Amino acid sequence: MDSLTHIAIGACVGEAFFEKGFGKKAMIWGALAQSIPDIDFISSLWLNSSESLLAHRGFTHSLLFAILIVPVFALIANNVHKPQNISFYKWIAFFLTEVFIHLFIDAFNNYGIGWFEPFSHHRFSFNILYVADPFFSIPTIISFVVLIFLGKYDVRRKKWWKFGVYIPVVYLSYCSINKLKIDNIVKQNLDLQHLSKQKYFTTPAPLQNWLWYIVVNDRDGFYVGFYSLFDKKNSIKFNYFPQNKYLLKDVSDHEELQKLIRFSKNYYTIEKWHDTLVFNDLRFGQILGWHLARNHFVFHYYLEHSEESRLVVQRGRFMGWNKNEFNIFFHRVFNY
User: Fold this and answer.
1) SS3 state at 210
2) By three-state DSSP, how is residue 121 classified?
C-alpha cells in the first residue's frame, strides 16, 4: 500500500494497543514501525533499475527483517518511556503486530513481497487490492486525523480507532470475496473459449475493486481482458499479445534482462518500438486498457536504453488520465 495508508494504520493500531492517555505517543511509534519496511526505497540511490525493482519489498519486507528490527524498536521505546508502566514484552508484541500488518497488507497487491528473503526469492502476491485503493485507505486516514486532534483522554478516541481498523478489515474481506467471484467467472470463460487454466491471474484495475484485469498465459503469448462485477453477462473478451521471445536473441544473456524476467514471474512480452527493444511486465495492467484494448502496458522497460527506465513501474500508471478518461473508466466499472 501507499506510505500514507501505512502511517495511518500504524497510528490507529498504536492507539488501540495502549489507549488511556498514552495512545498519542503510541500513534507516533506505530507510524514509524509501519513505515520502516519501506526504507528499501533508499536502495534506488545506488542500484540500477532492475536491481531496485527486486530490492523493493525484498529483504526489508521479510520475516527475518521483522524479527531483527522489532527488538531494536522495543529497546529504544522501552528506554525512552522507562517511567511508563509498559513491559518490554508488550513493546515486542506491539512492534511485531505493526510490522507484520505492513507485510501482510502489502501481499494483497500485485507487486509481490519477499517474505522469505534472503533464503527464497519467491514473491507472495494475492492480487486482491490495487496498490492505492481509496475505499481501503480513506476510513483509516480519517480516523488518523481525528485522533490527532482529539484530547488524549477523550472517550471518543476508542470509537475512532475502531473505525480506522475495523472498516478496512471489512473492506478487505469484501475484496477477497470479489476475488473468488472473479476467478470463478474467469475459469468458466477459459473453459468456454478453450483456453488453458494452468497459468493466469486476476487483479483489480486502478482505484477500486469491481473492475478486474485478467491475464492468461497460453504457450507463446497472453490473453488479456477486463471484467466488471457489474457486467450483465459473464463473457470476457480477450485480446492476444504474443510474447515474442525470439526478439531477445541478441540480449538473452544480459543479467539485467534475467532480473526483469524473474521480477515479472514470466508474465512478460517483448516488443520493438521503432529501433528500441521494450520489455513489458503484464502484471501492472495496460494504460487505459479497459477501452483502448491494444494500448501499451503500464510497465514498459527500454532494454537498449535502460537509463530512461528509472521510474519504470510508475511510468504509465496514470498516463493519459483526464476528466473524459475518468468518466469512461467510471462507466466501464459500473457498466452503464
Assistant:
1) coil
2) coil
140 near 167, Cβ under 8 Å? yes
Mean pLDDT of 224-250: 95
**How many CA atoms, within 13 angstroms, populate the side-chain half-sphere of residue 237?**
8
How far, in Å, CA of 185 to CA of 189, rounded?
A: 6
Question: Helix 63-80 to helix 88-106 angle, to the nearest 10 degrees?
Answer: 140
The one-character DSSP state at 296 is P
Q: Facing residues of 272 across strands?
A: 277
List, for residues 133-184, the tens digit of each pLDDT value: 999 999 999 999 999 999 988 999 999 999 999 999 999 999 999 999 999 9
- Grid cell digits, residue 29: 511509534
Integer Rg of the chain from CA: 22
Helix (H, G, I), strand (E, B) or coil at 248: helix
Q: How many other CB atoms sit within 10 Å of the CB of residue 226? A: 22
**Residue 161 and residue 143 in contact, taking contact as beta carbons nearer than 8 Å:** yes
The pLDDT value given to residue 82: 83
- Cell numbers for 213, please give them: 484485469
Report pLDDT digits (tens) over 280-302: 999 999 999 999 999 999 999 88
Is the C-alpha dihedral spanning 26, 27, 28, 30 positive or negative?
Answer: positive
194 by DSSP, 3-state: which? coil
H/E element, 273? strand 268-273
Every domain of the chain and the residues it spans: 3-174, 194-334
The candidate with the shortest Cα–Cα distance to 165, out of 19, 294, 12, is 12
This prediction has a pTM of 0.92
